[in-house]
Design brief:
DEBR0S2_16930g1_1
């Protein structure tokens, strides 16, 4: 028996056990599975195929040496009408987790980041492989920081990110949209599905973003390696 991949109204992974026959969601959360869709065969994926970059960014304060909670950055249970009850929210604790936004662009990640900054009215920063040793919190990586001052990567580490363009600060790929969809699918499977409610751009798209992921800091290196592997 497998565990349902759905997310409950309390924001936790569903505990219902389902037959391990390829089905990912129980009958209560089937709609969440349809949200991700069959990205590999969709008409949109074919029409949007083309070269570009996969970029990763986060909120600037989450890259501080000792990130602290922000009163405006809060977690809430999902609702069907997308209305938040602020009395039932809690602050997001960034010590062991980090919010990552992963997307694609046919332009440059730097230019796309500026667009997001203007739209959301937040201070975002692109995340690069050279930052990884200061993001993660495992004992092994703390030792890595001591051995490699100024967060410089070893030659062995650099080889893991062969698709990363240090000038444009993104992973170059021949199929940018499909690569992004594959990455999202993998991360949704592992970390679940949630929504980010953004006050800064609620007038343009309802203030909801679906491409953010709340992940353990110790997993960020593995995520970057997976992105590099998926880029063609």
């Amino acid at each position: 028996m497998a565990q349902c991949q759905g997310i409950t109204k309390a924001g936790k992974r569903c505990r219902i056990r389902i037959v391990d026959d390829g089905t990912k969601y129980c009958r209560y959360h089937k709609s969440q599975g349809r949200t991700f869709g069959n990205w590999n065969n969709s008409k949109d994926s074919k029409s949007l195929d083309g070269p570009g970059y996969i970029y990763v960014f986060t909120l600037e304060h989450m890259l501080q040496r000792r990130p602290v909670k922000q009163d405006w950055l809060r977690m809430a249970a999902p609702t069907s009408d997308n209305i938040i009850n602020y009395d039932k929210t809690r602050q997001l604790k960034p010590k062991h987790y980090i919010l990552l936004k992963i997307g694609f662009t046919s332009g440059t990640p730097k230019r796309r980041l500026e667009q997001w900054r203007r739209q959301c009215k937040h201070q975002f920063t692109l995340v690069t492989p050279r930052m990884l040793s200061s993001i993660v919190c495992s004992k092994k990586d703390k030792m890595h920081v001591l051995l490699h001052s100024f967060s410089r990567l070893s030659l062995q580490d650099l080889g893991k990110y062969s698709k990363f363009d240090n000038k444009n600060l993104g992973f170059h790929t021949k199929l940018a949209f499909q690569t992004e969809q594959k990455i999202h699918h993998i991360l949704h499977e592992k970390y679940g599905f949630g929504k980010i409610y953004c006050e800064g751009c609620k007038s343009t798209n309802g203030g909801i973003h679906k491409e953010w992921f709340l992940v353990p800091r110790e997993d960020v290196k593995n995520i970057f390696e997976k992105i590099n592997d998926l880029c063609q």
